[in-house]
Amino acid sequence: MGEVYRADDLTLGQAVALKFLPAELAADGARLARFHNEVRTARQVSHPNVCRIHDIGQFDGQHFLSMEYVDGEDLASLLRRIGRLPGDKGVEIARQICAGLAAAHEKGVLHRDLKPANIMLDGRGKVRIADFGLAQAAGELRDPNTLEGTPAYMAPEQFAGQAESVRSDIYSLGLVLYEMLTGKPAFKAATVAQLSRMHLESNPTAPSALLAAFDPAVERVILRCLEKDPEARPRSALAVAAALPGGDPLAAALAAGETPSPEMVAAAGETGGLAPKAAWACLATIAACLVAAVALSSATSLFSFVALPKTPDALCERGREIIRRLGYTADPKDSARGFALSDYIVYLSEHDRSPGRWEKLRAGEPPAALFWYRQSPRALQTTDIWGRVTLNQPPQLISGMITVLLDTEGRLVKFDAVPPQVEERDKAGRQPDWAALFAETGLDFAALRPAPSAWTPPVYADTRAAWEGTYPKQPDIPIRIEAAAAGGKPVYFQIFEPWSRPRRMEEALPSLGVRVANALVIVIVIAVLAAALGLARHNLRLGRGDRKGALRISVSLLLLIGTARHLGASYAPDMNQQLFVFMSILGASLCNAAFIWIGYVALEPHVRRIWPHTIISWSRLLAGQFRDPLVGRDILAGAVVGCAWMLITPLRHLVAVRLGLPPRTPHFGTLDVLQGPRFALGMLLNQQAQSVLFAMYLFLALFLLRLVVRKVWLAGASLVIVNLGLTLAVSTASPAVDAAEILIVSASMLFLLLRFGLLSAIAAIFCSEALDLFPLTADFSAWYAGTSAFPLLVVGALAVYAFHTALAGKPAFRLELLGD
């Protein structure tokens, strides 16, 4: 559309091309608008293989376009002169055409008239795609009754008046490649109607039928581009370039100093899948690690020392039974429950340095694990940011609020009830039946000796009493029991051990090492966040950020975290409280999503430029390619490492005992998962989101360190040293064993990040932490055996999915007959 002339820019002293709109069409408003549209759309695309547009102007009533002058000829002229391009040169030209077309598609622009006459070759043989006169933004609607483009190079859907897409340009690309490499057009007809019928109904002659030595790989690419069904064609021009023999568009872009697009990164890398032997080896390793984790955890976890004979429902009913027996018969409006750990574990970790210190937990006295039950005559209105009612949140302030603390056998450890705000005078001064209270504790009341009361109850009481004694099973541990009553009803009861501290009087300060580690973490987080904000702003200003990818991952995490937190929230019978919980969770989830959006926009463009191979599988997954073999391979590799990590905790326990060192606190997971399927699912979904956040944080920290020290190995070593310092700062058991553990984990994490990439690291963290959340047991008769099996099934299913996907359609089993 229009004539093109060479001209000299007298101001800049360089040659330019001027494209004029024919005079008879200048008065046509539609044609003039199309001419302006060419400028508007073409100027969005900046790439070495796209002809640059300089400006638009008008002189003496003639409209013209100033553009880059290409000292060469168009592909149509070249083909008329030499017939066809030889194989290697043709593939090189094809790859450049794909790169330029991909740059236009990345900006959301369809060419709509790609043909040899619109492909320029300069004197060095470099491609420039020109003439965006029919271009449009992807998704822009056109009049279906208007046939626009060059019929010989139009896709079937263009003839049919259907919606055009990137794959319409891919069809035109296939026609160009066919003609360029065979010297003949794919379809040749005398009329447009015949061309339309051929494009809609006929298949072109195979290139190998025209040229016997035609490369089969190139033929497959061309014929895929020429599929009638747009969905059967390659997804993008980069996918076409990647499928051409000997091509690596990613390496070419990096060598040219360009930042590859997210689509180019996703199209790069391997596509053939994992060898069946390697896939089976990975799957077998995961299965062995899961079996070993269950076996070792059954001997070294907290619940191998502490029995859990009663279900949460049974303990809950036991708590309500105690409340009724103590005279509180009113039905509550709201209640909550949960598990907690006692201070006895902290005491042992700080004061007992023997290798068998955790064997003392088997006695059950004093209790290591506790169950709490709370009830209230009003809705329990928590202010927790995640909407959870806890042992201390909300505070015990309303008359009729009651908290019961039990050991895992259902024996009373603590009782706390808020008496009526207005005293009942006829009941004041009545003496309570302390023996009935002690009957709920399992302690021998007669074996205790009275003592003066020393601990002030947290609520008003008109009667106080205290006793001293020892635990029946551990007579070397002295105990003190404080009780109080109001109006003859117990309002307070608690067993105190030597490690009990007056929390309302003393501030519980962490150790110096913990404070230093916490301060260092805060400094690192603030520094990384500040750097991320600066990088994100810089990338957005330059148009480098992958906003689509950032939006996908942030929305996904928003939904994951929001769903997980709602599953773990406490639901009160009060609409105002429900609204508060909903808004709190939404706000906190949005905050997490915002952080990940900032971090992703800040980090991802630089990773694409420096370490693009580390995010190939991640980019494919983010693009929805869940069945991609590389995605399966990297998840499978991450699952192997993650499941192996799970063995470290029980093994370090056994190693410490064998060396005569005090083992670290036994693994106990997250006690919330014991409350039921809703909480277990919520914790697992939350862990999935946290795995992405943590992996990206590590990736960002590694990248920032690499910018400072300039070398990858030095950045990795620095990150390991920081992790080692943080671990040793809080280590209280066996620093040498702790250091060995952190070195193994950090080294394997760096290996995953740099060898397999971000997706593999996320998979490793998820598998390890998902297993770590739950108490694993080999006792299938235990009431929590189903809870224990849940993460094993999830990780196993993930491994099977990754195994199947990584095979890329190859048979998992190969049966060979004798004699074959």
Can you put this structure into words, describing what you see?
Helices cover 49% and strands 12% of the residues. Helix 13 packs across helix 23. The chain has 820 residues and is an alpha+beta fold. It has four domains: 3-68, 2-Layer Sandwich (Phosphorylase Kinase, domain 1); 72-267, Orthogonal Bundle (Transferase(Phosphotransferase), domain 1), CATH 1.10.510.10; 276-302 and 513-806, no CATH class; 308-363 and 367-496, no CATH class.
Spans of at least 5 consecutive residues whose pLDDT stays below 50 are: 136-146, 815-820
Q: N-to-C terminal Cα separation, in Å?
A: 65 Å
Mean pLDDT: 85
Radius of gyration: 36 Å
Per DSSP, what share of the residues sits in E-state strands of 2 or more residues? 5-15%
- Which structural category do the helix and sheet elements fall into? alpha+beta
Q: What is the total tally of β strands?
A: 17
- Strand adjacency order, main sheet: 10-11-12-13-17-16-15-14
Tally of helical segments: 28
- Biggest sheet details: 8 strands, antiparallel
Q: How many domains in all?
A: 4
Please tell me what the overall shape is. Answer: elongated
Helix content: 40-55%
